[in-house]
Amino acid sequence: MDERRKYIRIDGSTAISYRVLKQFLGSGSRSKNISEGGICLPIHQRFEIGVVLELKIHLAELSHPILAVGKVVRLEEKKQGVNFPFELGIQFIKISPADKNKLIAHIANNDSTGIRPL
């Protein structure tokens, strides 16, 4: 199967804090996978396509989280009875150049597939 993604995506569980933009209450989860362009996040609650989230990405090698803003671009509802009934595809829409470089370095250091995007 040809890889048609724009960015390298690595699997792995990374701690993520999130909240709807400009709302007080937030929550957390662990990523399913992450790329330079976005993240896949299993969660308990349903968010509609287009919802904008503030994200804190807690990478083990960093003392401070990466801050990003992302938009829900994909929603998948899982079978009932699973711990996280929803899976979100979140596209980053705002991330500082410094944090983006940290994320790119993390992905490069943890990419074991050898697959490069088109």
Write up this protein.
The C terminus is likely disordered. The protein has one domain: predicted glycosyltransferase like domains (Thrombin, subunit H, Beta Barrel), CATH 2.40.10. The longest helix has 14 residues. β4 and β5 form a beta hairpin. The protein has 118 residues and is mainly beta. The radius of gyration is 14 Å and the shape is globular. It contains one helix and eight strands. It is 12% helix and 43% strand. Strands 1-4-5-8-7-6-2-3 form an eight-stranded antiparallel β-sheet.
- Rounded Rg: 14 Å
Query: What does the main sheet amount to?
Result: 8 strands, antiparallel
Question: What form results from the Cα inertia axes?
Answer: globular
CATH topology: Thrombin, subunit H
- How far apart the termini lie comes to 13 Å
| Annotation field: number of helices | 1
Q: Structural class, from secondary structure content? A: mainly beta
CATH class assignment: Mainly Beta
Helix content: 10-25%
Q: Beta-sheet strand percentage?
A: 35-45%
CATH evolutionary superfamily: predicted glycosyltransferase like domains
Average pLDDT for all residues: 83
Low-confidence spans: pLDDT under 50, at least 5 residues? 114-118
In what order do the strands lie side by side in the largest sheet?
Answer: 1-4-5-8-7-6-2-3
Q: In total, how many domains does the architecture comprise?
A: 1
Order of helices and strands: EEEEEEEEH
| Second rung of CATH, namely the architecture | Beta Barrel
Strand tally is: 8
